[in-house]
Amino acid sequence: MKRMDVLTILCLLWVMLLSFHLTDDMLHSGPNQTWVAQGGTVNLVVAVPALALWLFAALVLRERRSGYVLLLIGSLFALAMPILHMTGPRFAGGEIAKPSGAFFFVWTLLALGTTGTVSAILCVRALWSFRTTKKPIA
After folding, report:
1. What's residue 60's pLDDT?
2. Domain-wise residue ranges, the chain
3. For 12-30, how does the pLDDT look when each residue is reduced to its tens digit (9 = 90+)?
4. How far, in Å, are 28, 33, 40, 50 from residue 53 at the CA level?
5. Which residues lie below 8 Å from residue 12, measured CB to CB, with a gap of 6+?
6. For the stretch 40-74, what's the b/e string if a residue is b when 16 or more beta carbons lie within 10 angstroms of its beta carbon?
7. Is the pTM of this model over 0.85?
């Protein structure tokens, strides 16, 4: 399988996982929980265009430098998600395991971190190959 195909599949996977994660954040947000994404139109105005942009980069801009840059930014965002959540006070205090759906929430974080890391490495390798060649090595 070509490296570009692997990157496309990984990016599609983390876009799906990120949408699951944002949905879970919105469903478990409460009035006193400012650390999770609150539901509403503000999140839709930010989340939907961001996810659409990353899908566009993965599917249409997949062999262009701009596509790799956008995917690298998204990969770093996916990689940062478990770091941000697992270092917070609720996770350290064990509160994250109390609500229903905690298994799926933590699993999504781990999968986001893994796919984000591998896709970031592939994006950096592809961008690095632009330095020496006109087209990245497939």
Report:
1. 92
2. 3-28+40-132
3. 998 899 888 888 877 766 5
4. 26, 28, 20, 5
5. 55, 58, 59
6. eeebeeebeebbeebeebbeebbeeeebbebbbbb
7. no
Which pLDDT band holds residue 102 (cuts at 50, 70, 90)?
Answer: confident
Q: Using CA atoms, how far apart are residues 25 and 3, in angstroms rounded to an integer? A: 32
| Lookup: tokens for 100 | 């229903």
Nearest to 40 by CA among 85, 51, 31: 31
Start-end of H helices in 28-136: 41-59, 65-86, 89-92, 102-132
Is there a contact between 36 and 105 (Cβ–Cβ < 8 Å)? no
Task: Determine contact, residues 109/84, Cβ cutoff 8 Å.
Answer: no
Amino acid at 32: N
Separation of alpha carbons 21 and 13, rounded Å: 12
Retrieve residue 75's tokens: 């990969």
Backbone angles phi, psi at 12, to 5 degrees: -65, -40
Tracing tokens 């229903």 back to the chain, one arrives at 100
Spatial separation of the C-alpha atoms in residues 133 and 128, rounded to whole Å: 9
